[in-house]
Design a protein that fits this description.
The chain is about 5% helix and about 45% strand. By secondary structure, the chain is mainly beta. The protein has a single domain, classed as Immunoglobulins (Immunoglobulin-like, Sandwich), CATH 2.60.40.10. Strand 9 and strand 10 form a beta hairpin.
């Protein structure tokens, strides 16, 4: 299993890794908007800047159920949700409330609709609720067409 830990990479080490081809599958192809993390291949596990990790059982595809899990979630989290949207698209978010599936782990199933414009650049927002507050992490995820 490939693990892409982007939060510990400096600009210099990131550039060196890209030149060396070490980030194949880690998803640094297109530049995301500021504050958006990239997860090109969530089936290989993506470690997020907040310490949590996102993984899908298979490569995300539209109209196919995507089993996903989020690990290393704060034990004080009361709810975890994933919402999928596309940047610049006026559409209601597609989302799923995840269920606790073990210590610090939440899981669920998400189905992405087909984009009428043929786009596949999804932004998943991971919403973690702790007490009366919430933490939002936006992740750029590419989804294959059927």
């Amino acid at each position: 299993m490939m693990v892409c830990n982007l939060r510990h990479m400096t600009t210099r080490s990131l550039a060196a890794a890209m030149v060396g081809g070490l980030l194949a599958g880690c998803g640094l192809g297109s530049t995301p908007p500021q504050g958006v993390e990239v997860c090109k291949d969530p089936a290989s596990t993506c470690v997020l800047g907040n310490g949590m990790s996102l993984q899908t059982r298979t490569t995300p595809k539209v109209l196919v159920p995507i089993d996903l899990s989020v690990r290393d979630v704060s034990t004080s989290a009361t709810a975890v949700r994933v919402e999928a949207t596309m940047a610049g698209m006026s559409m209601p978010p597609v989302g799923v409330d995840l269920r606790g599936s073990g210590p610090s782990e939440w899981s669920g199933q998400l189905i992405l609709p087909v984009c009428s414009q043929g786009r596949s650049d999804w932004q998943w927002t991971l919403i973690t609720r702790v007490g009366s507050g919430e933490q939002r992490t936006t992740i750029q995820v590419e989804a294959a067409q059927r």
